[in-house]
Amino acid sequence: QGFCTHRQIDGTGPTVEWSASIDTHGGNAAVVNAVAFDSSGNVYVGGSASPGTGTLQKFNPYGQRVWRVNLATPVRAVTTNGTHVWAGISVVSLGSDTLYKFACSDGAEVWSVSARNVNDLIHDGAGKVYAARDGKCHVGLFDADGDIIEAFGGDDSGLQIATSLALDDAGGVYVGSMIWSAHATSCTPFGCAPSGNVAKYDSTSSHELVWLTVRNETSTLATFDPFFPLEQLGFSPTSLAWADGGLYIGYGNISHLIWPLVGVATPDLTGVDTLEKWNSETSLYLWGVQTGLSVADVAADDTHVYAVSQDLLKIDKDGYGTGGDGLIWCNHN
């Protein structure tokens, strides 16, 4: 059940201006993994258009495709400053390039470098880009020429995976991570599930740690087949957004990756906060919203936060609104 299916919301929701397919061959394997847009309204979409291959495409504000670039594996992350667009993919082979920079005008490749598995990207507005990666020093900062300036974050175990990034207006860096180390206390016959780790690093050249908070949600999930106690699986951050002193965190359950393989239905996560707002200076929890399913992406401005779960949600930044839990509108597709 989606969030919209059990709530009646007053007010007007969004209307679709255009839609487009990223699969130009008419198949049904297209998957969108990442979307970014520039100040002119152009949209950059990364994903896969056929099994095992990647695509990066630009659409103009009217939904017309401008260019398309094919890559070796699916694109996981995209960010743009309007002049250039960066795309991150997973490792094809050891040492292969996983971070690409293209010209926004025509899609021409500027450079590509090896950056391990890239799970999220965010640019700093000055030509540099942060990449969320796997392993030790799981955040990489790359300059305009593709050279790595600094690597930071993670622990010595190398078992943390940086999943999401955000920047504030003072240059602070927020990193969401999945931890498979000492905090991974929830276990199933398939192994131990991750905890959620969110950290803030300062804007200095060495990016010193400001605060770190670990979350492991284990007590409020629905009950499942005892052979496979999915209710014990932990949550990890899937997306971060910063606006006006608030850090918005979307959470997802990592067991989504294996449920289809074992034939277990997607659970009803009613009662579990999957979208939270924290004070970005202190990491103080401010409020949480139960969307019913994992949150795939989050965006925010100074007045509202937008979340993609099974539904598209618009929520008041202060956690109140016409629909309860701060909900302004909810669009179910």
Could you explain how this protein is built, in words?
There is one protein chain. The protein is mostly beta strands and 333 residues long. 1% of the residues lie in helices and 44% in strands. The protein is built from one helix and 26 strands. The chain has one helix at residues 259-262; strands at residues 31-37, 43-48, 54-59, 65-71, 75-80, 84-89, 99-103, 109-113, 120-123, 129-132, 139-142, 148-152, 160-167, 173-179, 186-188, 191-193, 195-201, 209-215, 235-243, 246-253, 275-279, 285-289, 297-300, 304-308, 311-316, 327-332. The strands form seven sheets. A four-stranded antiparallel sheet has the order 1-2-3-4, with no helix packed on it. The protein has a four-stranded antiparallel sheet with strand order 5-6-7-8, with no helix packed on it. The protein is globular. It starts with 30 loop residues before the first strand and ends with a strand. 40% of the residues are buried. Residues 6-10, 181-193, 216-233 and 255-265 have low confidence and may be disordered.
Which helices and strands occur, and which strands form pairs?
Elements (H helix, E strand, L loop, with lengths): L30 E7 L5 E6 L5 E6 L5 E7 L3 E6 L3 E6 L9 E5 L5 E5 L6 E4 L5 E4 L6 E4 L5 E5 L7 E8 L5 E7 L6 E3 L2 E3 L1 E7 L7 E7 L19 E9 L2 E8 L5 H4 L12 E5 L5 E5 L7 E4 L3 E5 L2 E6 L10 E6 L1
Antiparallel strand pairs: 1-2, 2-3, 3-4, 5-6, 6-7, 7-8, 9-10, 10-11, 11-12, 13-14, 14-17, 15-16, 17-18, 19-20, 20-21, 21-22, 23-24, 24-25, 25-26
